C-alpha cells in the first residue's frame, strides 16, 4: 500500500542520479602515503567517511584549497547518496556549501544548494528542500549551468507536488521539459517525463501518467540510461498496481528488478528498492500460492531493510509492508508493532505522506482487531493528512476504513457519510484510469466493497431510494459482475470486514480458488449436487416467512420517479447481492415500489447456486440438474410472486453473479419455465430503460432488416459457421424479401456494417464473437479497406453513435446471433468462474448500449450453431406473422416457446435459453 511513497523515491533518484558523470578515481591505497589528498580519498574508499571528511576539512585552510576541497566533495556526495548513506552525505554537503560560500564561489554554491535540496527532499523535509532549490535556481541560471538548472527545476516540481502545490509543480516540470528539449538531451527529457509521470500518478491521473512514462522510457533507451529505464518501469508498475491490474503491475516490477540487477555492487540499494516494490505486489497478488507469496515477500523485505539501513523512507516502507504481511496472517499485534515502527521513522523525518500511511495502516489493524475507537483515532489523523495533500486515492481508503469503524460502533449516520464520500472519491479517480473500459472496470472491481457496504447500510436504515441510487451508480461504474471472482468474506469476521478495498482482490481470488475446488467435486458427483439443491429448496420453502422482510417506501430518485410511467402490466425487478444479503427491489407503474431482503442468501451461497445452475444450463448433455432451476425460482421469484401476479412483463435488472443466469429458465413449482407464464427481458441501466420506454411504446414499424452472415475469410482458429448462411436465408424467407438485405461471406465486412448502420430497424449478425476482459470482438470480413481490420470492438462504437436513442438512426434492435456475445468467453468455457469480465460491459451486446439502440439480443454461453439457426429463423417467422407494428420480443419469446413445446433434446435450456433479450419488450 505504498505506491505514492514509491513515486517519491523514484522521482528523487531519477532527479539526483540521472545526469551527473561525476565519480571517484580509483587509487592505489595499499601503501601509506604522506599525501593528505591521497590519504583522504583512500579513507573514503575504505568507507571511513567521517575520517575522510575530517581530512578534507583540515586540508581546506586557504581560499585555493577551499575551492579544491569543495570540488572534491561533490562526487563523494553523489557516491554516498547512491549507496544510501544519506545522513553522511548531508554532513559532506553542509561542509561543501560552507566552503563555497566562504570563497564566494557562486557556481559551487549553486550546485551545493541544488544537492542539499535533493537530499532534504529525499529525507522528506519538503519545506527545507523547497528553500534550497529556490535559492539554487537563479544562481544556476546566472552561472550558466543549464543541465543542473533542469535537474533542479525537476526536483522543485517534485517537492511542490509533495507539498500539495500541484499547479506550481506542473508549471515547474513543464518548464524543465521545455528546457531539456531545447538542450536535446534525452536523459534530461526522460528524467523530466518520469517526474511528470510521478506527478500525474499522485494526482491519480493514471492515463496521462502512463502516456508520459512510456515516453520517458523511450527517451531513456535513446540515452542508454539504465537507471531512468528502471524508474519508468517501476512507476508504470505502481500505476497498474493502483488500478488493480496486479498481473501487469507485477510484470513491470519484475522488469524493473531485472534492470536493477545490471547495476554494480555499490548500487545494491537499487536492488533493495526493486525487491521492496515486488514484495508489495506479492502481498496482494492474486497469482500463485498466497502463503508462498507472503513468505517470499517477507524475505525480500528483510533483505531490503538491510540494504536500506541508512535510508529511513525506504525502511519505513519496508516496515509498513511487513505489517501488511502480519495483517494478512491475522497477527494484529505484530502488524501494529511494524506500523508503529514505520510511523516513528516518518515522524522523525516530518514526512507527511509516510505519517499518513502509517496512521492509515494502524487504523486498518485496529479495525481488524475490533478496537474501533483506536481505529478512529488513527484514521482521523490519516484522513486529515490526505485531505491536506489532496490525495484522493488514500483519502478514499481512509474514509472507507473509518466508515467501517463507525458502522461497527453503531454510528450509522457517520458511517453513511464516510461511505458516500469514499464512493465520490472512487468515482472521481476512475475516469483517470489508464487503458480502455476494461481497465476502468478492473479498477472499480477491486474497489467495489464500498458500494456493497453502503447499499447494505442504507437497506438497514430503510432508505430504499438511497440504496437504489448507489446500485445504479455501481452499475454505471461497471460493477455488473464485481463478485464473480469473490466470495466477499464472512460477515462475522472483523478481519475480513476491515480489509481495505485494494487488498480485496487477493482475498477474493484465494477464496475463489478454494470454492472452485469444492464446486468441481460437486460437479463430478451429480448426487451431491441434487442433495444439496433439494436441501436448499426445502430450507427456503420452510423458512419462507423468515427469508423476506418487506419494506414499502416512496422512492425519491429520478429513476424511481420515472417508474411511474411503466406500463401497468410491467414490473422492473432489481437484484443486488451485497455482503450480508441479497436485495430485491420491485418497481411497477402506478404503484408503490417494494423492497425485499433475502436474508439468508449471502455471496458465498449465491455463488454456489449460480455455479451449479450454469453447469446445467450450458451443458446439453447434463439432464440431472433441473432441480437447481427450481431452487432459484424459490429464492428469487417466490418471495415476490404474489406481488407480480398481475404483471405479464418482467424486466430483470441483475447484478453480479446473477447476470449469468437466464431467469426465463427458472422452474416454478408447477414445473413450468418462467418464460411460459411471463415475458422476461433484461436491463443494462434503469435510467436508460425508462428513457427507452418513453420513446418506444408501440413496437417497430419494420421497413428493413440488414443481415450479416458467415463473414469470410475467418481469423485463424475459428471454424466456419455452417448454418449461418442458412439462418440468413430463413430470415429472408420469413419476411417480405424487399425488407431484407443480406450480406454473406466476403460481403459481410466491417466497412459494410458501418455503412448500413442507422439505415435499418433491425441489424442481425450471424458470426463469430468473443467477449473477454482483454477485448470483446465481433468478427466480420476485413474487406479491401486499409482502415478496417474486420474486428468490431468497443473502439468502433463511437463511429456508430452516442448513447442517445436518436443517434442510432433507425436501428431499434441488434441481434448478435453469435457465440459468447453477452458474456466472457472464459466463463462460458469454465463454469468455475475464472473470469472477472462484467456481463453488461464486457460483452459485445452491451457495447451496443453505448450507441443508443434500445433493444439487443445476445448469448450467455457458446451456443449451438444449428439450434441457433432454428431459433432465429422461427423468431423472424413470428415477426412476419405480426401486424404492421412489430414487437420483436414477442416473436423471440414465441420462438423459445416453440422449442420448449417441441420436446426432446431441443427443449433443454441449453438450446433456447442461451440467448437473452435486453431492453424494451414493446
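^ Assign residues to that structure.
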Amino acid at each position: 500500500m505504498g505506491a505514492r511513497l514509491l513515486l517519491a523515491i523514484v522521482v528523487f533518484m531519477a532527479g539526483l542520479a540521472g545526469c551527473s558523470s561525476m565519480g571517484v578515481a580509483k587509487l592505489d591505497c595499499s601503501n601509506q602515503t604522506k599525501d593528505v589528498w591521497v590519504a583522504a580519498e583512500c579513507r573514503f574508499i575504505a568507507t571511513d567517511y567521517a575520517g575522510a571528511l575530517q581530512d578534507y576539512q583540515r586540508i581546506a585552510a586557504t581560499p585555493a584549497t577551499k575551492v579544491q576541497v569543495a570540488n572534491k566533495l561533490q562526487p563523494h556526495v553523489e557516491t554516498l547518496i547512491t549507496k544510501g548513506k544519506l545522513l553522511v552525505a548531508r554532513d559532506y554537503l553542509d561542509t561543501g556549501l560552507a566552503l563555497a560560500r566562504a570563497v564566494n564561489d557562486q557556481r559551487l554554491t549553486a550546485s551545493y544548494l541544488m544537492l542539499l535540496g535533493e537530499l532534504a527532499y529525499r529525507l522528506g523535509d519538503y519545506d527545507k528542500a523547497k528553500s534550497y532549490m529556490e535559492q539554487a535556481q537563479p544562481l544556476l541560471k546566472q552561472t550558466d549551468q543549464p543541465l543542473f538548472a533542469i535537474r533542479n527545476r525537476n526536483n522543485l516540481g517534485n517537492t511542490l507536488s509533495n507539498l500539495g502545490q500541484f499547479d506550481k509543480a506542473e508549471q515547474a516540470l513543464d518548464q524543465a521539459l521545455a528546457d531539456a528539449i531545447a538542450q536535446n538531451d534525452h536523459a534530461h527529457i526522460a528524467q523530466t517525463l518520469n517526474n511528470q509521470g510521478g506527478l500525474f500518478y499522485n494526482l491519480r491521473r493514471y492515463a496521462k501518467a502512463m502516456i508520459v512514462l512510456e515516453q520517458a522510457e523511450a527517451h531513456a533507451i535513446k540515452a542508454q540510461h539504465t537507471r531512468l529505464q528502471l524508474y519508468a518501469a517501476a512507476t508504470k508498475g505502481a500505476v497498474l498496481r493502483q488500478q488493480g491490474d496486479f498481473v501487469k503491475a507485477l510484470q513491470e516490477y519484475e522488469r524493473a528488478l531485472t534492470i536493477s540487477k545490471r547495476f554494480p555492487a555499490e548500487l545494491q540499494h537499487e536492488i533493495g528498492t526493486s525487491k521492496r516494490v515486488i514484495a508489495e505486489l506479492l502481498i496482494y497478488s492474486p497469482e500463485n500460492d498466497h502463503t508462498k507469496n507472503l513468505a517470499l515477500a517477507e524475505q525480500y523485505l528483510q533483505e531490503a531493510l538491510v540494504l536500506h539501513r541508512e535510508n529511513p523512507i525506504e525502511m519505513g516502507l519496508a516496515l509498513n509492508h511487513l505489517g501488511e504481511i502480519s495483517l494478512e496472517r491475522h497477527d494484529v499485534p505484530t502488524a501494529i508493532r511494524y506500523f508503529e515502527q514505520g510511523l516513528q521513522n516518518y515522524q522523525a523525518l516530518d514526512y507527511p505522506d509516510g505519517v499518513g500511511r502509517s496512521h492509515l495502516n494502524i487504523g486498518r489493524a485496529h479495525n481488524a482487531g475490533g478496537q474501533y475507537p483506536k481505529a478512529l483515532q488513527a484514521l482521523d489523523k490519516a484522513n486529515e493528512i490526505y485531505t491536506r495533500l489532496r490525495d484522493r486515492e488514500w483519502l478514499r481508503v481512509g474514509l472507507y476504513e473509518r466508515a467501517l469503524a463507525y458502522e461497527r460502533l453503531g454510528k450509522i449516520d457517520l458511517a453513511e457519510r464516510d461511505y458516500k464520500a469514499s464512493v465520490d472519491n472512487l468515482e472521481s479517480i476512475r475516469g483517470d484510469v489508464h487503458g480502455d473500459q476494461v481497465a476502468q472496470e478492473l479498477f472499480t472491481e477491486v474497489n467495489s466493497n464500498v458500494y456493497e457496504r453502503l447499499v447494505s447500510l442504507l437497506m438497514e436504515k430503510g432508505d430504499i431510494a438511497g440504496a437504489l441510487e448507489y446500485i445504479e451508480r455501481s452499475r454505471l461504474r461497471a460493477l455488473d459482475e464485481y463478485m464473480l471472482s469473490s466470495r466477499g468474506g464472512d460477515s462475522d469476521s472483523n478481519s475480513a470486514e476491515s480489509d481495505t478495498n485494494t487488498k480485496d482482490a487477493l482475498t477474493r481470488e484465494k477464496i475463489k480458488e478454494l470454492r472452485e475446488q469444492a464446486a468441481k467435486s460437486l460437479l463430478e458427483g451429480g448426487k451431491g449436487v441434487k442433495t444439496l439443491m433439494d436441501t436448499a429448496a426445502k430450507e427456503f420453502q420452510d423458512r419462507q416467512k423468515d427469508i423476506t422482510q418487506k419494506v414499502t417506501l416512496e422512492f425519491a430518485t429520478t429513476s424511481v420517479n420515472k417508474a411511474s410511467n411503466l406500463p401497468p402490466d410491467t414490473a422492473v425487478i432489481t437484484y443486488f447481492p451485497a455482503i450480508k444479503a441479497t436485495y430485491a427491489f420491485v418497481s411497477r407503474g402506478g404503484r408503490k415500489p417494494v423492497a425485499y431482503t433475502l436474508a439468508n442468501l449471502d455471496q458465498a451461497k449465491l455463488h454456489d447456486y449460480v455455479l451449479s445452475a450454469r453447469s446445467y444450463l450450458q451443458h446439453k448433455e447434463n439432464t440431472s440438474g433441473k432441480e437447481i432451476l427450481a431452487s432459484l425460482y424459490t429464492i428469487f421469484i417466490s418471495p415476490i410472486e404474489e406481488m407480480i401476479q398481475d404483471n405479464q412483463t418482467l424486466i430483470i435488472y441483475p447484478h453480479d453473479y446473477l447476470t449469468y443466469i437466464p431467469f426465463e429458465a427458472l422452474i416454478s413449482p408447477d414445473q413450468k419455465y418462467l418464460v411460459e407464464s411471463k415475458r422476461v427481458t433484461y436491463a443494462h441501466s434503469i435510467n436508460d430503460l425508462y428513457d427507452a420506454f418513453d420513446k418506444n411504446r408501440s413496437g417497430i414499424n419494420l421497413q428493413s432488416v440488414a443481415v450479416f452472415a458467415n463473414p469470410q475469410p475467418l481469423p485463424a482458429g475459428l471454424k466456419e459457421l455452417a448454418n449461418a448462411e442458412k439462418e440468413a436465408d430463413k430470415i429472408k424467407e420469413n419476411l417480405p424479401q424487399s425488407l431484407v438485405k443480406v450480406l454473406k461471406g466476403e460481403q459481410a465486412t466491417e466497412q459494410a456494417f458501418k455503412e448500413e448502420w442507422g439505415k435499418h430497424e433491425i441489424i442481425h449478425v450471424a458470426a463469430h464473437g468473443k467477449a473477454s476482459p482483454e477485448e470483446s470482438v465481433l468478427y466480420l470480413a476485413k474487406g479491401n479497406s486499409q482502415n478496417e481490420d474486420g474486428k468490431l470492438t468497443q473502439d468502433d462504437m463511437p463511429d456508430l453513435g452516442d448513447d442517445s436513442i436518436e443517434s442510432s438512426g433507425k436501428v431499434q434492435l441488434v441481434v448478435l446471433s453469435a457465440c459468447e456475445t453477452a458474456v466472457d468467453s472464459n466463463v462460458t468455457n469454465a463454469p468455475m468462474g475464472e473470469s472477472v469480465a462484467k456481463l453488461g460491459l464486457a460483452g459485445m451486446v452491451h457495447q451496443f448500449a453505448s450507441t443508443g439502440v434500445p433493444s439487443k439480443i445476445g448469448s450467455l454461453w457458446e451456443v449451438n450453431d444449428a439450434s441457433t439457426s432454428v431459433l432465429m429463423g422461427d423468431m423472424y417467422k413470428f415477426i412476419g406473422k405480426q401486424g404492421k407494428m412489430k414487437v420483436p420480443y414477442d416473436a423471440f419469446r414465441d420462438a423459445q416457446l416453440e422449442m420448449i413445446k417441441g420436446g426432446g433434446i431441443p427443449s433443454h435450456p441449453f438450446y433456447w435459453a442461451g440467448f437473452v433479450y435486453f431492453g424494451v419488450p414493446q
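Confidence is low (pLDDT under 50) at residues 1-25, 433-446, 476-559, 820-842.
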